[in-house]
């Protein structure tokens, strides 16, 4: 019993540590500043509590703050839900359709993905959000989306308070001349005078809070519309990207196959109800999902396996010609590299001269890839994947489970393209493959 209590206390302490991150610190600071300044402006200078309208306005401001914080902390501490350690499908034959996660020692359930930040396989993962320092997924998708809705609405109300406060307080203080505008920030010319005069510091604080409120409304409002767009299609941001890559793969190989997203229930209302329930947690168990008629339970995971095999087949091998220490913004690699560093929390990989990397994507000054730690194992993986891709079947990735994968960004100037691929011993001229 004592051990169980210790484990629970440790888990609670671990969850509280999520607050010690720049994302929650900034998010909670913005909420606190906008809420506090809106209440202060309303009570002291715009709409006092001794009026009915002022009391209702104050209650609404408190209500916005409570609902925003409730959904914010729900999204953070309830979490997305994780695939249990050691999970595998009931039918052992279905394992061939799933990817295996060597970190969680389990198969990745449909719609789940491994998050490098959380270090767990997340059920119905949408993305890892730095503002809540947690993933958005199966269990907290509704709370996260409600937070994205309520935050702009609350900021719009607060922005109205800020604008009206500054307008009413400055109305009798602004005088216009022939070639000048004068603002008198002395005591307010109103009867009765407020307890605390609206001085220069109050004006600056209200103006700063107004900027925060408007910026939050625009930024978070855009995120809300993006989330609603994928929810009404019963997708996640990752699944939308997988669908785009499926079209690219089929066009690249000029195949006649078509990919149908299996989880769209056909009705936007049905898709909406799967996420938004009275309990606040999406329908189902996060491991099995209802699929569109004619689709396979593992249609999406089979496509993921094909894309994973295809990515390594289409990857290009590079060799490091300079050392790179893994710095996010390396000054020694040129100003262009310094100022165009990828704006992502994805890791950088340390390179030593002579290291070989399989690059899968890149920017003008940066590339993303996987360091080859075992050339013999890598060649075997590439042979297995090429065979699976050409045969049109899934690749289970069994050959790559033994070694630790090191993936991340690195400067393009630190590497040069290998002239010959180790598998085919042919130049990597980018010719289109057919199958």
Sketch the major β-sheet: 5 strands, antiparallel
- What is the number of strand segments? 13
Q: Helix coverage percent of residues?
A: 40-55%
> What characteristic shape results from the CA principal axes?
globular
Strand order of the largest sheet: 12-11-10-9-13
Unreliable parts: 1-10, 187-191, 384-403, 422-435
Rounded mean pLDDT score: 83
Structural write-up:
The structure is a single chain. The protein is an alpha+beta fold and 435 residues long. It has helices at residues 2-16, 22-46, 52-78, 141-170, 200-231, 237-253, 268-275, 299-314, 335-339, 375-391; strands spanning 100-101, 106-107, 113-115, 120-122, 127-129, 134-136, 174-176, 181-183, 316-320, 356-362, 366-371, 406-411, 415-417. A hairpin with a 4-residue loop joins strand 7 and strand 8 (181-183). Helix 2 (22-46) runs antiparallel to helix 3, helix 2 (22-46) packs parallel to helix 4 (141-170) and helix 3 (52-78) runs antiparallel to helix 4 (141-170). Mean pLDDT is 83; it is low at 1-10, 187-191, 384-403 and 422-435.
Write the layout of secondary structure elements.
Elements: H1 2-16, H2 22-46, H3 52-78, E1 100-101, E2 106-107, E3 113-115, E4 120-122, E5 127-129, E6 134-136, H4 141-170, E7 174-176, E8 181-183, H5 200-231, H6 237-253, H7 268-275, H8 299-314, E9 316-320, H9 335-339, E10 356-362, E11 366-371, H10 375-391, E12 406-411, E13 415-417
Antiparallel strand pairs: 1-2, 3-4, 5-6, 7-8, 9-10, 9-13, 10-11, 11-12
Helix pairs in contact: 2-3, 2-4, 2-5, 3-4, 4-5, 6-8, 8-10
């Amino acid at each position: 019993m004592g051990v169980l209590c210790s484990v629970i206390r440790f888990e609670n302490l671990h969850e509280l540590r999520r607050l010690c991150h720049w994302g929650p610190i900034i998010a909670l600071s913005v909420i606190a500043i906008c809420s506090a300044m809106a209440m202060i402006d309303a009570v002291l200078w715009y709409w006092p509590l001794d009026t009915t309208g002022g009391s209702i306005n104050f209650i609404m401001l408190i209500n916005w703050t409570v609902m925003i914080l409730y959904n914010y902390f729900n999204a953070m501490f309830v979490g997305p839900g994780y695939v249990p350690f050691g999970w595998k499908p009931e039918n052992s034959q279905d394992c061939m359709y799933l990817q295996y996660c060597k970190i969680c020692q389990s198969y990745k359930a449909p719609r789940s993905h491994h998050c490098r930040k959380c270090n767990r396989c997340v059920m119905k993962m949408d993305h890892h959000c730095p503002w809540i320092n947690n993933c958005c997924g199966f269990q907290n998708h509704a709370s996260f989306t409600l937070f994205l809705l309520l935050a702009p609405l609350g900021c719009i109300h607060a922005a109205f308070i800020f604008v009206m406060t500054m307008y009413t307080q400055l109305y009798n203080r602004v005088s216009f001349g022939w070639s000048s505008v004068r603002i008198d920030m002395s005591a307010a010319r109103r009867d009765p005078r407020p307890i605390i005069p609206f001085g220069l510091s109050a004006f600056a604080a209200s103006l700063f809070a107004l900027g925060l409120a408007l910026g939050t409304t625009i930024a978070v409002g855009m995120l809300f519309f993006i989330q609603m767009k994928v929810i009404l299609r019963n997708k996640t941001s990752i699944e939308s990207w997988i669908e785009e890559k499926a079209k690219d793969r089929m066009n690249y190989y000029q195949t006649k196959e078509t990919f149908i997203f299996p989880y769209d229930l056909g009705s936007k209302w049905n898709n909406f109800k799967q996420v938004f329930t009275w309990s606040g947690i999406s329908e189902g168990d996060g491991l099995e999902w209802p699929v569109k008629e004619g689709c396979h339970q593992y249609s999406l995971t089979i496509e993921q396996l094909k894309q994973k095999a295809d990515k390594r087949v289409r990857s290009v091998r590079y060799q490091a010609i300079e050392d790179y220490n893994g710095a996010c913004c390396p000054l020694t690699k040129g100003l262009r590299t310094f100022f165009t560093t990828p704006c992502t929390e994805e890791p950088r990989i340390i390179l030593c001269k002579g290291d070989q990397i399989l690059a899968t994507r890149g920017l003008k000054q940066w590339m993303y890839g996987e360091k080859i730690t075992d050339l013999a194992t890598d060649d075997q993986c590439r042979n297995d994947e090429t065979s699976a891709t050409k045969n049109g079947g899934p690749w289970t990735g069994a050959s790559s489970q033994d070694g630790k994968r090191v993936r991340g960004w690195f400067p393009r100037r630190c590497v040069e393209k290998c002239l010959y691929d180790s598998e085919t011993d042919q130049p990597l001229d980018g010719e289109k493959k057919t199958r």
